[in-house]
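TEACHING EXERCISE
Course module: macromolecular assemblies
Task: Read the component lines below, then compare them to the predicted structure of the full complex.
Student: A.B.
Group: 4
Components provided:
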Amino acid sequence: MQNPAIEYDYTVAKWFSYLAILFGIIGMGIGVWIAFELAFPELNYVAGQYTLFSRLRPIHTNTVAFGFTLSGIFATWYYVGQRVLKVSMAESKFLMAVGKLHFWLYFIGALLAVGSLLLRYTTSKEYAQFEWPFDIVVVLIWVLWGISIFGLIGIRREKTLYISMWYYIATFLGVAMLYLFNNMEVPTYLITGMGDPFHSVSMYAGTNDAMVQWWYGHNAVAFVFTVPIIAMIYYYLPKESGQPVYSYKLSLLSFWGLMFVYLWAGGHHLIYSTVPDWMQTMGSVFSVILILPSWGSALNMLLTMKGEWGQLKENPLIKFMVLASTFYMLSTLEGPIQSIKSVNALAHFTDWIPGHVHDGTLGWVGFMIIAAIMHMAPRFYKREIYSKKLLEMQFWLQTTGIVLYFSSMWIAGITQGMMWRAVDQYGNLAYSFIDTVTVLHPYYTLRAIGGLFYFTGLFMWAYNFYKTMTASKAIEKEPQFASPMAA
Amino acid sequence: MFSWLEKNPFFFAVGVFVVIAFAGLIEIVPDFAQQSRPVVGAKPYSLLELAGRQVYIKESCNACHSQLIRPFKSETDRYGMYSLNGEYAYDRPFLWGSKRTGPDLHRVGNYRTSDWHANHMWEPTSVVPGSIMPAYKHIFKNVADLETAYAEALTVKKVFNVPYDKDMNGDGKIDVPLGSFKQAKQRALQYALKVAQETKRKDLVDMVKQGKVPEIVALIAYLNRLK
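Instructor-supplied answer key:
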């Protein structure tokens, strides 16, 4: 028996897509700017204290991680959720209202939080810089998203949860747990009635604080940059290519494996620090084990394309997603290598680490979100993608940008690490610290240019999206698989 | 079992939660108490130092500077004795950093002076040619927020039992006095005057004499304390 076609409601998905593009441009624009600051320090002063590297760096990371990426995650959730659960948001006024409220609270909260960082309100903990009032806003946003997820599940027609749903649920739970525990802080004004009402002090001190922070920090990467992105690729790649997922068993193994292993790996941020040695070793070992579930997902996606590799040539969206999987494999191999104690001794504190982060975020997260939003665009507006050619150009420009980025940072990181430890024939340190900074100038320049390439690609993406929305040729009905594109 | 879980979202979510919560419990809980213990000689920050620490945090110095010396000869030669767990007992939050765009600062108080810091923060290349660190001129004008620093000290004293106003080593003297805000501020001003004089900058000395502590002075007091 054939059910009548469900009319999905994409309102909230569209809004979050706009926001992903907006925050992508802002966040990565700041990223490019501060990359140039490292090469040309005079750029620090263009807007007085507000453009100092140290002020902008947390704004860059937060805008990209929690602006661009989360918007992308929410956009895809409000699209994928309905489709894999076979229920439209239009069927529930309540869930529709929750979705819209979720959007507006998120948008306003994000602007306020970024503003607070600009005004020096920060707890200093990486990726958890927001002071306590904004933490409360974040919790509210998260609760709304939870209501949306479980509400939609509650009224679903499709009883079995598709793989993407596993990952969205895990994202929700994982971030909730991590965020709550890492941001445990005591607002000083509430205790003493004095001083700045926004100020708070961490519940944990010293080594404990470090341990909780990197349990959080590493797994914020897991549950913002990995888990929900896998949710996306499990939906969009099979959909765009028209190919079934290669192996259910592999997806099962990868999912539960990832859930179990990922949380242990946070300790690799603390190797040779003052946390107990057994924990450093655990972090190291589990990081290596993490290759298995990570590559499991990535290979499952690549094998989904089995026999259909011709599409890679024809369809730029497939290009984005296949390269995203590939960068995921690269990044999840590189991470474990850096977690090995002897490698970590060299790599820690150097530019190799931002290099590693960026081949994951630009290559895997960025490409997947770009592809997902361009896949949705023709479905949102019942129009063709405006320009395939522009999408192709964007792909190659951004890919070149990423390669420039990580290759320059590999060289910079290893150079610096080696120079820090280099000794002369008498065993004295061979270089002063400043020698190890000035030597990096060409690599910093190259990295900034790579970033600029990627950033330029974002404008091509935004333009293509906008033209698809407004000026592209209309299509009669929602495309089944490959997204239609004008040359 | 898995196909059953996939049809029962509640139990699925419970399953996921148990699997992800497991690692945190095992890694963090067992050593928690042990790791909170201060090393002998570790003392809480005085009001001025704490205000300086807040400036360090506000300016995100930790974006480029670590405070963690690893146990390698190349690091101990460069920065001094490797860091010990108990030295961080009063650090809320910890400030280890994750990137050394600039050098480690955990023992910077051993080898840099107040006037060096003042010159450096005013114009980094004047003391370190080739430096890519930007100047922080605005903190020479901003007035340090001693009230918030006091609120923090009082909070940790009350909530976490940080030993302010206590004789820690049994010599009959209070090691780190805090007292009332008025007393604490008075003490901070005296300390700030000494630091301001060490910087050899008249503008800073004058500000302190007017009862206002420039952020840079508080920051230097904090950096000098890092040993």
